Amino acid sequence: YYTYRVIEDPEWSLATVPHLTELCLQHIIHNFEKNPILDRLLPEHQRKVLDRLSTGLPLAVTANLISDEDYWKRCCTERWQACDISNYGDSWKQMFFERHLENILKCFIPNTTDPNQVLELIPLCKDYVRKLEVDQFLPPVQTAQKEERDDLSNTGSDFGFSEVSIHHYDLGVLITALPHLEELHLTYGVKDCGMNFEWNLFNFTHQDCCNLAVAVKMCHNLKVFKLTRSKVDDDKTRLLVRNLLDHPCLVELNLSHNLIRDKGAQAVGKLINHSRLQTLDLCNNQIHHLGAQALARALAENSTLTSLNLRLNCVEDKGGKAIGRALLTNTTLKSIHLGSNNLSEPTATLFSQVLAQNTSLTSINFSCNHLGLDGGKQLLEGLANNKALTEFNLRLAEVGQETEYLIHQIVWANREAARLGSLQHPRAKLI
Amino acid sequence: REALGEDAELKVAQVEEEQRRSHKQIEESRQRLAKLLFDGTQMVTNIQVAADLRETQRRAEEAELKLQRVEKLENEAKSSTYKFEEITSKWALAKEMTIPQELWQLLNQQQQQCALLLEEKNKLIGELQQELKNKDEQYVWAIKKQSDDIHLLLERMEEQIRLMLKTYRHELLQIEKAFELERRELLDNNRKKWEEAIQAHNAQELEYLHARMRKVEEFEKQLNQLRVQDEEEYNSMKIQLENDVQNLERQLQQMKAVYQLNQEKLEYNLQVLRKQDEENTIIRSQQKRKLNRLHSLLNNLRTKLANQKKQFREENHSLAADCERITGQCKEVQRRMRHFAISDAEKFTEVWLMNEEEAKGLMQKALNADRVIHTQQLGLPWEEPRYWFLNNVGPLGHYKVKRMATKLAAEVLTVGSGEGGKENTAKVEGRVTPLRNISKKTAKRILELISDESGFLIESKLLRSLQALGRHERTLMKLDSIFAALKIDSEDDLYQLVDFFLKYKAKEMAVSQGRWLLGGRRWWKAHCPACWPSLQSQGSPGAEDVTDLAEDREDGGSGAQRDKLKSPRSSLGSLPSVYIHADDVLKILKAFVRGFDKLREKDKSAKEVLQVRDSSKDGEYWEALAHVIPEPRLKLWDALAVALEEYYEILTRRASLLAEAALLQQQNSELCLLLEEYISSGVNSKLLSPPTKWMDLNLSCPGEAQ
């Protein structure tokens, strides 16, 4: 038969016939969805199968079976253009599941989307999701009122039509089911609304806040919690803080770009000393001197916080001085940002004292304040004997070019010294 | 930058050289890059800072505007309310108006004013709307501005990245160049060094080669020299050796001659020996035979010996059994004998007592008779005879009743009393014991010492009650209780105690003085145990024989030492004023008590021996009992009997005479009675001259006259 074929067909050759193993593998790949065989194969065959598997296979099959990074890399690159693996713990699989889950949450419309869509995914992804970064929560669709709203949009959208059912998706079920969740970045808002903008789309309701707070409290491994651009006001802050008190793991809290006022700041101040917070970001809120004083009081007793950001608030001199006084006793804070806080010379005077005494602060930011020439000189005096500060931002602080230059020189020298010290240290350890 | 810096630092660490070009280059590059990075960051963040500033300014303006607006609104509201009030106040006026024209005029005015008010309001609204529009525009502008900013930001970032990349590449190149250069230099240096070293090495090698050649030549010369020398030596040696060989050959031949001679001699000897050997074999066979015979004999004898041994053993066994049996019998007999002896003694005593009682009764009778004779018949004073046997009860020669130790002590203490008896006993014993001769003073001293020092042996109760007594009595009482505690009851024990004290002292002195250190110590050791029984026996004369036996045995064992023993004893006794220290008393007492217990044991065994009495005095005793009344007195009694018989005769005669007299008297009295009867009868009175008148009246009662 062969000879016959060979004679008959000059183009035929034995090489073109694939091996049986190849054929088998091919078959396995084609029927992977119905009959996933992977663990029982030899390593080189596994490799081949994984290389040729379709990325469109249902997750229910692949999620817990395949741990091969290359497969998940293909999945990711096919689905998204930009893939920065370093943000996802250097794991393609983690990246895939986190982004997949985020996408589902972003597109989740309460009362319309089937909640099972999320629930079904939980057993598949719970072992891989460590970070959730959701920057969009869609409000429920209200068709009947939508038309009405179109009519009324001119007269004012803040008509009382949406008290009941404008709550967003409740994360509680999901978050508590993810045992390895460590980071949670949330923004209650709608992206790319364009000309369909309505204030309504950006409403972080009290119910939402309650749900979120309870969910976060249940999430014991959470280390980083960010809730930004979500219209969090004093009441909601207090609600959140009440649930976050004595959280076992929480290290970083970010409530920037919200509507927190003094009362909220006081609550956060209380939280500082009842948790293990190391980083606190409250930038672009409406904290005035009372809130700053509350924070300063907490700071004076605290020994965990290392970074505090109060950019774009309204702390003013009273609050600035209170914080400065707190920093005279505090020995853990390394970085503080007081940019755009309407500070002036008295704060600078006090901070010159802080600079002379405190040895733990390494970074201070006073940009966009009205410190004045004298304030700058006083800061320079205070800095004269400081060896710890490696970053001192005084841009647009009206301190004068010369002072800024001199301060820059000192800080630069400190930074060099710190670099040498850190180099010497490991070398000493090596020896 | 950090990574780069660290890499550079690592390299530096590896090279370990500070001032190197590469290091410098790296440092420079690092600094330049850091500056660049800082500047770039500054530039990029400047946008953010500027935006912040704008925002703060905008907020400040906003706040101001808000304030103005509020003020304006308030003002407007105030003025409008004022106007409105004015208008409303005019409505009241209008009601009072009656003239239509005026009313119309007023209404017009009101209308105008209302219109004015409305206009103002509208104007305000318009203004606000204008403001809103402006705000919208501003918002659009701000958005535009922000997008511009973001674009700018992106641009700058990209530019920055490009720049950074470029500079990084440049710097990397520079660093690489520096390293290359350095490496090349290093290589050059090393090569140069290498070549120098090689050259030096070659030169040295050459030198070594030359030196070696020189040495080789030298050695060759030396070799030749040595060869020549050796050859000469060889020749001379050869000659000498040849001479030696010749000598030796000569000697060899001599030896050969000697050898042959010897061989012949030896052959002869061999022959002789062979003969001898043959003889020997014969003798040996003979001897063998003899030996066999003797062996059989020996065997026979052995069997005999065994038989005899067996026999003797059996005999021995039977004899031993016999012996045992006999000893048992002997013991039994002894026991029986002892028993009989005891019973005999008892019987003897009983018989003795009975006889003695009888004898005593008889004797007493005789004595009584004697007494009666003396006192009643002779009228002489009777003196009770005093004989030693009178008071004796029981068999003669019984032990002297032992005085109690305390009694003895009391005696000793009251020096001078009861000495005689003791001396007697000493004499009876026949052997002068130094012990008894201890001076009373010494004994007293010792006893006093004991009583003073061993107060602990006395019961406290007793001690308290003793305080009341006198010194002498107290000492006595104390001694009594001490002896009770020490179990000293007989005088022998006391003697021992005193003797022990003295000996102890003597030993002490011997030790201290060392005078008769050798002899004294030896006799003490040898005799002490042996002495005790003898000492003890001294107190009991009955046991004398036994002790004598012991003494005899002793004498056989250590007769030589007897003399020695006596001399220290006498010296011991002659130390009347031995001073015994009070502190030593307890020590001595302890030693004594230890030795005393042992003694007691011996004592008991000694006492078992039966005491044999002698009967030499018995005859004498009984004789004495029989002759309790002496000879002269018997004679006296005979004479008295004769005299009394005579006296008896006279008395009997007198008695017969008396009887006669009594008869006569009776006759007389009968006659008197008859007479009286006659007289007293009536006839008399009738008579003219009664006989009574003239008759003597005395005759009337002759009985009375008698």
UniProtKB/TrEMBL annotation, chain A:
Gene3D superfamilies named in the record: Ribonuclease Inhibitor
UniProt keyword annotations, A-Z: Cytoplasm, Cytoskeleton
InterPro entries linked: DRC5 (IPR052410), Leu-rich_rpt (IPR001611), LRR_dom_sf (IPR032675)
GO CC annotation terms, alphabetical: cytoskeleton
One GO BP: microtubule-based movement
Principal subcellular localisation of the protein: cytoplasm
Pfam families: LRR_6 (PF13516)
Protein name as catalogued: DRC5 protein
Localization terms from the record: Cytoplasm, Cytoskeleton
TrEMBL record, chain B:
UniProt KW Coiled coil keyword: yes
GO cellular component, one term: axonemal dynein complex
Domain Dynein regulatory complex protein 1/2 N-terminal: 49-150
A Pfam family: NYD-SP28
Keyword Coiled coil assigned: yes
Taxonomic superkingdom: Eukaryota
Biological processes annotated in GO: axonemal dynein complex assembly; cilium-dependent cell motility; regulation of cilium movement
Key words of the record: Cell projection, Cilium, Coiled coil, Flagellum
Localisation: Cytoplasm, Cytoskeleton, Flagellum axoneme
Coiled-coil stretches: 12-80, 107-138, 184-318
Residue stretches making up the Dynein regulatory complex protein 1 C-terminal domain: 620-679
Ranges of compositional bias, category Acidic residues: 545-554
InterPro entries (UniProt xref): DRC1/2_N, DRC1/DRC2, DRC1_C
Region: Disordered, residue numbers: 536-571
Protein family: Belongs to the DRC1 family.
PANTHER family in the record: DYNEIN REGULATORY COMPLEX PROTEIN 1, NYD-SP28 PROTEIN
Physiological role: Component of the nexin-dynein regulatory complex (N-DRC) a key regulator of ciliary/flagellar motility which maintains the alignment and integrity of the distal axoneme and regulates microtubule sliding in motile axonemes. Plays a critical role in the assembly of N-DRC and also stabilizes the assembly of multiple inner dynein arms and radial spokes. Coassembles with CCDC65/DRC2 to form a central scaffold needed for assembly of the N-DRC and its attachment to the outer doublet microtubules.
Protein name in UniProt: Dynein regulatory complex protein 1
